[in-house]
Specification:
Distance between the termini: 27 Å
Largest sheet: none
Number of domains: 2
Order of helices and strands: HHHHHH
Length: 184
Amino acid sequence: TVRQCENSFYVVTVRAFRDRHYEYKGLHKQWGKNLATAVKKKDDLNEVKRRNNLIVIYDSLQLAYKCILNSFYGYVIRRGSRWHRMEMRGIVCTTGSTIIKRTRELVEEIGRPLKFDTSSFFEAFLKGTIFEECYNHVGTIADYCLDILYSHAKDILDKELFELISKRTTMSRMLSDYEEQKST
């Protein structure tokens, strides 16, 4: 069984990092709008610079917290770690992989990528206090993703669909550096 949810230190710590990540992500978005307003109003150049600096700070902070949050998952699957659980790795990776494979199949039919990742499934485990609750929360996310795929997104708002298909990710290396890796 997956025991992370029974260890309050682990759960509280991961939740705190997750919440802080979302806080900084929201502030980054808010200050982006504030900057656009300042530019539109032709505010003082110093004010525009200040707002731009805040955008950079909040973007850096939200990325740092995202990296730390993702490292918790990496730590959990590392042999020798205090909370090592291969079941956690298996659940997160299998669930995420299944969704990503089905997404790829649908993308090949439709031609537009949708942004789903294993992080959202990993974070869902934190919402449960016992094993069954963890699965139920992950199942809710999986059902949502699959509903979008199977219904060809006809049951969601256009705005929500555009958010899913317009998210971009960037790679830190050239595509040719990944040639030897297999894709799922």
